[in-house]
Fold this protein.
Amino acid sequence: MTSLILRTAARYLFPIIMLFSIYALLRGHNEPGGGFVGGLAAASAYILYALAYDVAAARHLLRIDSRTVIALGLVIALGSALVSVALGQPFMTGTWGELAITSTYKLKLGTPLFFDIGVYLVVLGVTVTILFALSDQETEAG
Amino acid sequence: MNAWLIAPVALPLFAAILSLALRTRVRFQRIVSVCANAAALSIALALFNAVRTDGVLVLQLGSWPAPFGITFVADLFSAIMLVLSGLMGLAVAVYGLATMDEARERHGYHMLFHVLMMGVNGAFLTGDLFNLYVWFEVMLMASFVLLSLGGERAQLEGAIKYVALNFLSSALFLAGVGILYGISGTLNMADLSQVLAQPAHQGIINMISMLFLVAFGIKAALFPLFFWLPASYHTPPHPVSAIFAGLLTKVGVYALIRVFTLVFRQDVAFTHQIILILAAFTMVTGVLGAAAQMDIRRILSFHIVSQIGYMVMGLGLFTELALAGSVFYIMHHIIVKTNLFLVAGVVQRLAGSNELKKIGGVYRAAPWLAVLFLVPALSLAGIPPLSGFFAKLTLIVDALRGGSWAMAAVALSVGLLTLFSMTKIWNEVFWKPAPEGKPTLPLAAIPVRERIALLLPIIVLATCTVCIGLGSGWMFDLARQTAEQLLDPRDYVTAVLGVTEAP
């Protein structure tokens, strides 16, 4: 399927959807949102791109293999859960630290955020892997 | 040691991530597989040792106190199961080095194997019913893909039956969990045992317990819900069916025993009587089904069903001795059954098939393999001094003590019929001459390294079988302590909840 309108729109929509997915991810700590929804939104951006161009182009846009994204996400999630073990607390205990950007502005960072980032990447990786595999077979058959 | 309770789950997850990240490098994945399974076994042994000396271990995940968070608990029963799953994981991982084809390895065999082990270990450790459901699903997903990986026609056919029935089981399990939460407000098993001890809603609780019985009964392949098992276990490659045969149904049995000793113990006369009757039917149908089969793995699959009957029979009798018998039986059965499937794999390699009619003469070609088959086979049938004898003896003695004459008679005659099936395999595969034009290869025909990978796990597991038989006094004491803990869950409850409230 080639449609100039869809292609042009996809090119502009892609960064917007990605930004929104990150917004949903970060918002998830206290409000509706989170890694799962964020990951799905991000995956939908890639799927839109794959629909407008083709799967190869979307793969190229992802830079790394989608299965590597899954592995990366799992490593981050597992790592964030193990931080507390290293500090002598039970697995998955939320651990918080502050990152001083300037003397007045401090960023509060915790392992739940990194866990969520891990989930985000896993969901993105899994969804994209499945849909790429499905659309690959479609092109083979057609 | 408490913090290490996460290791049997986290370690396979880490190994799975490594295998996923390096999915094109088969050699590396094999090394990871053997190392991770060896490490898992050592951790399981360390945990077992800690549980034996210090009592029940508890880990509150995320520091959320029970009953609000998820609790990982290891009592003796869990620790024994962890050791067994570690041992089977290592044995099958080593065995797989020689038997798995590279195509399956490239498509994630190793990763799925780790995920499967993670699910199994998680199910053994969790103290929360919903979390148990999650681990069942992890296990189910991994086993589904393992079963169908390779995409052979027979495999897919088996996988469909397997998945359909197991999804039904999950749905019933989830429904049970939901209703239970509705009436009790908690899903922590230790907390549930406290809440349900108060006599209220007995009718609803019995109904829920039946939902759990059916759900776990499907997983454990109890009568009349077992038919998915013989339909699927003979289709995948041998290492896969060996690990399935050894561990998966036993997770169902574990869940049954856990739930019906800890949570649903108010109306034993009703619930456990049903379990006992189902156990008898399971034993008989399994062994009769096996008698009609002419394929090694099919025969062995039906025997899994009949053996499940013995394990559940101990739960149905619900005395300390009977539960000790169940625990003993599980320890014996997991090792023996995995080993028999591994031997079947070597037979396939030497004779080219697993169908009794098409093969023969294995004794002449590989006499030592015949000996290695004989050890688990006779143990399965319950010939002294091997492990199966003592497991059966314990259960039958208890049945006689309790006056369940019919049960004892069933258990004894099923043992005899098991011997019949094993003799059939022996006669057809090992004793009778090889069919014309299809000579059976000797063991020496397999390259040395592969031969070691194939035979080492079989030898080790056979040694375990003999050792359990010879050291049955020690093993029986262990089983008895485990049964004591199961029947009197105060230690478990105190360890999880901190303090015991008077009911």
